[in-house]
């Protein structure tokens, strides 16, 4: 068999180049995964991803169509940037976040931090794939979408790998960066790679020696002893997780009690804005907010409570609660969680004396604590162990029945419970009583998990609740947004009736509801009879000022379902198909993207920047 013609790659070389190209694309995809996780606490999901795909396209186009950059130059540049990315990504996001622009802030961060790495990575792929038989634009046009798809699509693979999901994002980035630097060091000493890296358009030259022992190439070996130092000393500017002890900010009025990594939101933080000191009060140097503790997941607040002199109760006696360390805590800083408790005001003539409730999504545990205090057997389904730990340690949640706590996906819990309650074995059925109340609160970071809002989910839920049960569903957004319509239309597809309330303590015009970001609570029931809320009495308040304001006036915050539907009619089957959420067609996450941008900006108005930058 004759040797391959000059300039034409042998099958072995082509296979090797394809394999190496795949390795590079996998590395870029893993770097993107680590980069996005780094940005989660500072930008959340929606702002981070809003224009990320476009930035990736631009970087890929630039890497593919600009003059060829040899791997001997591209690899060290990409490797160095990746090793530095725990620092550069953090600080770029910190400073652009202060613009309070959820669109162009992330774009600027992407352009400064990840785009150069993608450009140099694609430049390496371009050299590896270059073939004299496929010169010019057609080759590049064919390779471009493959590169972009590999980088973005393969990211869905990484969270399924337990070891990677639990690996800190800082480690992921430095691992990939060090791998790129090792490849650069090894490149001249591997003949096959040396041949692959030959200048495009020139025939591959066989080396007469197994190694290229020139001075510059040997000098690269000096990089190897530095890599352990890089891996050990290049740290993220964020706080160590978990925190060994509370962190007190040296300049701002801020304490971080707990900071824990989370596979679901990046980070779960318990922070405090301490009460003003006597010196601050005397000088009149008191700014809002103060005297509060909050629970943060990613770039979203899951709730909070008042501290210090803002811990009050209706009887002016003992505080409403204490955390695990004995610190008195007060009312919820948000009314939405108290409004959910209005489910107990719904008249249910057939209700048994012993009642039970299911919490899908825990937050700070405000609603769960209230149901437990009312003597209602409460089951908790929370996906994030870190959120549950924060609620029990820092927000006064005292679980009376630990066996009723389920850490995992809420849908999985509902499906399993429904299966057991409809099992053929009568003994198995008796072990599971249907619930009287369900509190469904999964809004976080400007969005919700779509699979927990589909028709099939609600149908499964009806299998584990009583015929007159009350289901309270919390969602946030504007009144007539597609996402709000979709949730309402889908609920009405399963439940004969729902009543809708907002959580604002101030009167709201319909025009304001259509434009502002508002929390909505949908109260639904399987019964066809009208849902009636009884008047709240003092026992419902549990000594809480917030409950005494919210529960007696719940009727004042009701919104007619037609205000959500607008011109849409529930009787029009063809029109409402657009909004019914199914497992096969569920655009809820896409519809909530714009709401996510608004939510990010709102969060920056609730707390100063330093609170979002410290985690």
TrEMBL record:
Keyword Transmembrane included in the entry's annotation: yes
Keyword Metal-binding: no
Top-rank lineage group of the source organism: Eukaryota
GO molecular function, one term: thermospermine synthase activity
Any Gene Ontology biological process: methylation
Bilayer-spanning residue ranges: 12-35, 107-128, 172-190
Keywords: Membrane, Methyltransferase, Polyamine biosynthesis, Transferase, Transmembrane, Transmembrane helix
PANTHER family for this protein: THERMOSPERMINE SYNTHASE ACAULIS5
Protein name, UniProt field: S-adenosyl-L-methionine-dependent methyltransferase
């Amino acid at each position: 068999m004759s040797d391959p013609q000059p300039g034409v790659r042998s099958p072995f070389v082509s296979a090797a180049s394809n394999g190496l190209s795949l390795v590079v694309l996998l590395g870029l995809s893993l770097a993107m995964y680590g980069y996005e996780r780094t940005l989660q606490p500072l930008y959340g999901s929606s702002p981070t991803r809003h224009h990320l795909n476009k930035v990736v396209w631009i970087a890929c186009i630039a890497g593919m169509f600009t003059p060829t950059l040899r791997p001997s130059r591209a690899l060290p540049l990409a490797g160095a940037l990746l090793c530095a990315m725990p620092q550069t990504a953090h600080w770029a996001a910190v400073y652009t976040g202060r613009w309070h622009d959820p669109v162009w802030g992330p774009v600027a961060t992407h352009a400064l931090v990840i785009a150069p790495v993608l450009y140099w990575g694609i430049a390496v792929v371009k050299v590896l794939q270059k073939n004299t038989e496929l010169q010019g634009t057609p080759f590049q046009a064919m390779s471009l979408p493959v590169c972009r798809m590999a980088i973005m699509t393969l990211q869905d693979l990484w969270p399924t790998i337990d070891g990677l999901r639990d690996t800190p994002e800082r480690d992921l980035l430095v691992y990939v960066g060090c791998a790129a630097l090792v490849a650069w060091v090894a490149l001249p000493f591997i003949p096959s790679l040396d041949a692959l890296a030959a200048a495009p358009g020139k025939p591959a030259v066989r080396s007469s020696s197994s190694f290229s022992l020139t001075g510059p190439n040997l000098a690269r070996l000096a990089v190897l002893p530095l890599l352990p130092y890089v891996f050990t000393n290049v740290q993220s500017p964020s706080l160590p997780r978990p925190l060994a002890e509370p962190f007190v900010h040296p300049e701002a009025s801020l304490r971080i009690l707990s900071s824990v990594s989370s596979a679901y939101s990046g980070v779960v933080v318990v922070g405090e804005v301490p009460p003003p000191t006597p010196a601050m009060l005397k000088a009149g140097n008191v700014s809002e907010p103060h005297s509060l503790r909050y629970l943060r997941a990613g770039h979203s607040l899951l709730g909070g409570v008042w501290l210090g002199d803002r811990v009050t109760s209706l009887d002016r006696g003992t505080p409403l609660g204490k955390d695990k360390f004995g610190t008195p805590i007060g009312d919820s800083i948000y009314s939405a969680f108290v409004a959910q408790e209005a489910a107990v005001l719904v008249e249910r003539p057939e209700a048994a004396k012993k009642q039970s409730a299911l919490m899908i999504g825990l937050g700070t545990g405000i609603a769960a604590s209230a149901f437990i205090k009312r003597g209602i057997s409460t089951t908790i389904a929370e996906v994030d162990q870190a959120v549950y730990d924060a609620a029990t340690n820092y927000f006064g949640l005292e679980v009376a029945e630990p066996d009723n706590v389920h850490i995992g996906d809420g849908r999985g819990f509902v499906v399993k419970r429904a299966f057991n309650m409809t099992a053929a074995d009568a003994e198995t059925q008796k072990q599971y009583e249907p619930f009287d109340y369900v509190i469904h609160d999964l809004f976080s970071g400007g969005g919700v998990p779509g699979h927990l809002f589909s028709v099939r989910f609600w149908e499964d839920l009806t299998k584990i609740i009583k015929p007159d049960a009350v289901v309270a569903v919390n969602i946030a957004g504007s009144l007539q947004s597609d996402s709000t319509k979709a949730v309402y239309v889908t609920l009405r597809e399963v439940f004969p009736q729902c009543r809708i309330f907002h959580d604002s303590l101030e009167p709201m015009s319909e025009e304001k509801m259509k434009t502002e970001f508002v929390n909505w609570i949908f109260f639904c029931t399987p019964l066809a009879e009208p849902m009636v809320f009884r008047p709240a009495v003092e026992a419902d308040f549990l000594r809480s000022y917030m409950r005494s304001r919210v529960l007696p006036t719940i009727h004042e915050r009701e919104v007619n379902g037609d205000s959500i539907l607008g011109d849409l009619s529930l009787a029009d089957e063809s029109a409402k198909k657009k909004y019914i959420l199914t497992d096969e067609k569920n655009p809820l996450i896409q519809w909530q993207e714009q709401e996510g941008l608004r939510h990010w900006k709102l969060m920056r108005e609730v707390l100063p920047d330093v609170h979002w930058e410290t985690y």
